[in-house]
UniProtKB/TrEMBL annotation:
Its main location: cytoplasm. Catalyzes the reduction of the glycolytic intermediate dihydroxyacetone phosphate (DHAP) to sn-glycerol 3-phosphate (G3P), the key precursor for phospholipid synthesis. Residues 3-161 form the Glycerol-3-phosphate dehydrogenase NAD-dependent N-terminal domain. Sn-glycerol 3-phosphate binds at K106, G137, S139, K192, D245, S255, R256, N257. It comes from Psychrobacillus mangrovi. This is Glycerol-3-phosphate dehydrogenase [NAD(P)+]. The active site is at K192 (proton acceptor). The keyword NADP applies. It is found in: Cytoplasm. Residues 181-321 form the Glycerol-3-phosphate dehydrogenase NAD-dependent C-terminal domain. It catalyses: sn-glycerol 3-phosphate + NADP(+) = dihydroxyacetone phosphate + NADPH + H(+); sn-glycerol 3-phosphate + NAD(+) = dihydroxyacetone phosphate + NADH + H(+). NADPH binds at S11, W12, H32, R33, Y49, K106, A141, R256, V280, E282. GO terms for molecular function: glycerol-3-phosphate dehydrogenase [NAD(P)+] activity.
Length: 339
């Protein structure tokens, strides 16, 4: 039995804490809302985020950040991308010695273009960081809490740390692989949300399966191009955190990104969509970051550009699809000629 803290009691933090508690670890879940921590401790529910789930009784919660950080030497950070820096900054005063950090967030920071692990490195003193592991893959919280078979990847530059996280999370319904391509895993995780928003849009427009298959396939091509330009290994993008998560997110009603796109495709405004979903839709902010990053890297990312125009330049979803369909003629495999 290992002591582990999970920071962030939204859908994913709660589902992962449940996996760890079911694996008989001493898992403490931190919520920044006292009433939510009380609900988890007394009612064993988290109704806002996982309405139909009964949490294991050995899963404890706290809203005391100091208690949460001091509880364990393994800390899982499960807050949205935009909260990563704040959470890391707040934790510094309670860190004493080295801890193993796991992050599970899927995004890139606009303007700095930093991946999550880079933000963690920016914010935490290296003397307090044993290693950073990213846990990512096709894994809707709603299915994980039902113990439906799920596969995921623990990626780190430190394979010993990745294997430790594999051991802590793995069980009969939660299968964990390892990978050392942190760039590829984080880029695939962040960018699949952009393509999922676009997939939701084509479904909302009523364009059907051909259009969605095109988006997933050409989406993977542009994600791979960007990833390679940043130093990722090409084959990571055919794996769980690339193609795997694209399929899960672009085809599922569980996906907040797909649902947001679907509502946009049906004509709703971005403001109304985000208000109605009420949970993080990472793809919106990541579209901005990816659009900027593609320009910096001089990588062609037509789907990301089209989505950027819809989200931030008031182009209609239908016009954006028309623009994509009228691009100059290309060879399908010209992206792959370099590997
Ligand atoms: N849901 C899923 O199935 C999966 C999600 N992910 C990724 O996990 C990350 C978290 O997503 P998810 O749990 O789904 O998001 P949710 O929107 O479900 O929950 C986010 C949680 O983070 C809390 N939070 C927000 N800002 C802060 C802050 N500054 N300090 C402390 N807590 C904060 C929210 O609190 P409040 O209630 O107050 O808003 C909420 O509890 C995202 O990057 C997502 O892409 C990855 C795999 C699967
Ligand atoms: O990352 C996810 C599944 O792997 C969850 O996707 P959403 O954030 O779109 O719900």
């Amino acid at each position: 039995m290992e002591k582990i803290t999970v920071l962030g009691a939204g859908s994913w933090g709660t589902a992962l804490a449940m996996v760890l508690a079911n694996n008989n670890h001493d898992c403490l879940l931190w919520s920044h809302r006292e009433n939510q921590a009380t609900e988890i401790n007394l009612d064993h529910t988290n109704k806002k985020y996982l309405p139909d789930t009964v949490l294991p009784i050995n899963l404890k919660a706290t809203s005391n950040f100091e208690t949460a950080i001091k509880h364990a030497d393994t800390i899982v950070i499960a807050v949205p991308t935009k909260a990563i820096r704040d959470v890391c900054q707040n934790m510094k005063e309670y860190l004493n010695g080295k801890k193993l950090f796991v992050h599970v967030s899927k995004g890139i920071e606009p303007d700095s273009f930093k991946r999550i692990s880079e933000m963690i490195v920016d914010e935490l003193p290296s003397s307090n960081v044993e290693a950073i592991v990213v846990l990512s893959g096709p894994s809707h919280a709603e299915e994980v809490v039902l113990n439906h078979p799920t596969t995921i990847t623990a990626a780190s530059e430190d394979m010993k740390a990745a294997k430790k996280i594999q051991d802590l999370f793995m069980n009969n319904s939660f299968r964990v692989y390892t990978n050392d391509d942190v760039i590829g895993v984080e880029i695939g995780a962040a960018l699949k949300n952009v393509i999922a928003l676009a997939a939701g849009i084509v479904d909302g427009l009523g364009y059907g399966d051909n259009a969605k298959a095109a988006l997933i396939t050409r989406g993977l091509a542009e994600i791979t191009r960007l990833g390679i330009s940043l130093g990722a290994q090409p084959y990571t993008f055919s794996g769980l955190t690339g193609m795997g998560d694209l399929i899960a997110t672009c085809t599922s009603i569980h996906s907040r990104n797909w649902r947001a796109g679907n509502m946009l495709g049906k004509g709703a405004s971005l403001e109304k969509v985000l208000d109605e979903i009420g949970m993080v839709v990472e793809g919106v902010r990541t579209t901005k970051a990816a659009y900027q990053l593609a320009k910096k890297q001089q990588v062609d990312m037509p789907i990301t550009e089209a989505l950027y125009s819809v989200l931030f330049e008031s182009i209609s979803p239908k016009e954006a699809v028309d623009i994509l369909m009228h691009r100059t003629k290309k060879h399908e495999l010209e992206d792959y000629k370099t590997f």
